Amino acid sequence: MRLVFAGTPEPAAVALRRLLASEHEVVAVLTRPDARKGRGRTLHPSPVKALALEHGIEVLTPETLAGDSTIQHRLRELSPDAVPVVAYGNLIPADMLDIPAHGWVNLHFSLLPAWRGAAPVQAAIANGDEVTGATTFRIDEGLDTGDILGKLETGIGQTETSGELLERLADTGAGLLAATMDALEAGTATPTPQPQEGTYAHKITPADARVDWAQPASVIDRGIRAHTPAPGAWTMRGEERFKLGPITPTDGDTLAPGQAWFGKNEVLVGTADGDVRLGTIQPPGKKMMNAADWARGLSPEAKEGVVFE
Q1: Burial, 42: exposed, middle or buried (Cβ in 10 Å; 0-12, 13-18, 19+)?
Q2: Where exactly does CATH 3.40.50.170 map onto the chain?
Q3: Which of 33, 81, 127, 221 is most buried, judged by most C-beta within 10 A?
Q4: CATH code for the structural domain at 206-303
């Protein structure tokens, strides 16, 4: 089939790479405009754009699709059979949904109708789900509500972060998306309507990633893993902000919520129902480091009465 691929970040590039290796023809890509990154704030292409340019594929980078008659005209000229979508980052206007014969087909990293919305991987971990997966579905005018075309399931590891889980789902999901394109071309796809009821995963903000030490240890553990690596879990000590990596719950329950204890080779912090061991920590102005190494660099006075908030 003739495909126009829509996507922006690295997980989308993984799917595009799989489609480029398939029998389908990717005639163009839709992706977000170049973004400024780094200390120099220089412009960088999205991973999807960079991959498309490597393969000599036409790249379209509209700020928005709504009201853009030029992009709509170009898509109609390209006459795609389908538009596979992975984390594109732009809403698809209703008047563009009928351009491809087989529709716009989204690869979403959850088992729909669970965790519709912007952050399904983070939501699944934070919620304590044991199983998640990926779903391909035909985009309609709702939010991740279209007919399901394919699904795959996978377990969530007890120590897995959202970054690790997303990397796994991007790889297996790419195969699911390619298989869905094959089924659409062969006429063997069987669209299944979704129930109206579902759960939603809102867009993550840095405020969501602040650790609340008054929560149970299991909730804090899941929350930190859900926000690793981005936007990164964090906590305060006075006016200082510390970024945290994944923690390990312990059998101890001697510390008040947020109270820190410094052992020879560990740093423990209290929660609502038990102590947890810090893994890595990033003090203000420094790089992420092992929490025990950070503690060894503190004076005895600096360790007294440490409470994270």
Answers
A1: exposed
A2: 2-201
A3: 221
A4: 3.10.25.10
pLDDT for residue 139: 98
Q: Average pLDDT for consecutive 10-residue bins of the chain (309 residues)? A: 98 98 98 83 92 98 91 96 97 95 98 97 98 98 96 98 98 98 97 96 96 98 98 96 97 96 95 97 96 94 92
> Binding site annotation covers 268?
no
Residue 166 known to bind ligand: no
Tokens standing for 270?
């209290």
pLDDT of residue 7: 98
- Long-range (24+ apart) CB contacts under 8 A made by 183-186 are 183/149, 183/150, 184/1, 184/81, 184/82, 184/102, 184/105, 184/149, 185/1, 185/24, 185/81
- Shortest CA distance to 233 belongs to which of 282, 298, 196, 275? 282
244 marked as part of a ligand binding site: no
Q: Is 97 annotated as a binding residue?
A: no
Task: Give domain 2-201's CATH superfamily.
Answer: Formyl transferase, N-terminal domain (3.40.50.170)
The structure tokens 């930190």 sit at 224
How much is the pLDDT for 41? 77
